[in-house]
Design a protein that fits this description.
The chain contains 6 helices and 7 strands. With about 150 residues, it is of the alpha+beta class. It has one domain (about 40-145). It is globular, with a radius of gyration of 15 Å. The two termini are about 30 Å apart.
Length: about 150
């Protein structure tokens, strides 16, 4: 990317705002239906960032805008239920719950018990803001292998 993108503006275009707190009752019910333990960090993340679709204005390698979403019902279901992410959890060293998808549905997004954000191939940040910065401005992430050292 040539210039640094405004993470806050992109989140606002997706429907986020300062103080956002959506009702997560149906989301937590959906998680429990598929065997997930709903921990506080998940609820906090979903209250603020749940049910968003982010469109990054800079085109990706295909020339299309890159997209990320936080719609757990699009990823948690009969295929992805509790127990599917044991390898990722062993790398992270804590429980993970999928909260959406990144990079045009190529990577799952996870929230950990401690509030760290991961995707399918590693850690994006110690919190949601670090993760959004890493995704939107492609500033990098820690690969699973790097987390083990």
């Amino acid at each position: 990317m040539s210039t640094k993108l405004d993470v806050t503006a992109i989140l606002q275009n997706a429907g986020w705002f300062v103080g956002r707190r959506i009702d997560t009752a149906k989301l937590t019910e959906h998680y429990r239906k598929y065997g997930f333990e709903v921990f506080p960090a998940l609820v906090r993340f979903m209250e603020e960032f749940g049910m968003l679709e982010l469109v990054i204005p800079e085109p990706d390698q295909t020339g299309d805008p890159e997209r990320h979403h936080t719609h757990p019902e699009w990823v948690v279901g009969d295929y992805y239920r509790y127990g599917c992410f044991q390898v990722e959890e062993s790398y992270a060293g804590e429980k993970l719950i999928p909260v959406g998808e990144a990079c045009n549905e190529n990577l799952l997004l996870f929230v950990s018990e401690s509030g760290k954000i991961y995707h399918s191939t590693g850690k994006l940040g110690d919190n949601a803001w670090e993760a959004w910065e890493a995704l939107i401005n492609q500033t990098g992430f820690q690969d699973w292998a790097d987390l083990q050292n």
